[in-house]
Amino acid sequence: MPDDSCAIVDILAYFPSTEKCESNRKNAKLYVCKQESTGDTLYVFADCGREKTLPFFRGVYLVKGSIKSNVVKELVVSIPENFIIPKKAKYVFSDLLWVED
Asked: Distance between CA atoms of 28 and 72, rounded to whole angstroms?
């Protein structure tokens, strides 16, 4: 599956949404990832939804076709108080895909 239509990432940290998904607030999960091909840190904001057990943290697909271009201006994420996303950080609004052999 690896080709120009996806990027392979390793998940460094995962912050599930601890808030109930509501229609009047945009809650999101946050994955802090390392892109395998470049080594860049990438912050992936995924739609709030049913929580699932992550089957593995290495070699996860970020499908470019699932990246959202029309995003909200404000998101609610559940992160530690001392967690800081650096200025000029690379981020996307997308879901990740776990493909098992």
From this structure: 11
- The one-letter amino acid at 99: V
- Domain-by-domain residue ranges, the chain? 6-93
How big is the CA angle at 98 (ends 50 and 84), to the nearest 5 degrees?
70
How many CA atoms, within 13 angstroms, populate the side-chain half-sphere of residue 77? 21
Q: From CA 26, how far away is CA 73, in angstroms rounded?
A: 10
In angstroms, rounded to a whole number, what is the distance separating the alpha carbons of residues 15 and 2?
26
Segment 60-73, tens digit of pLDDT: 888 888 888 877 78
Global pTM value? 0.84
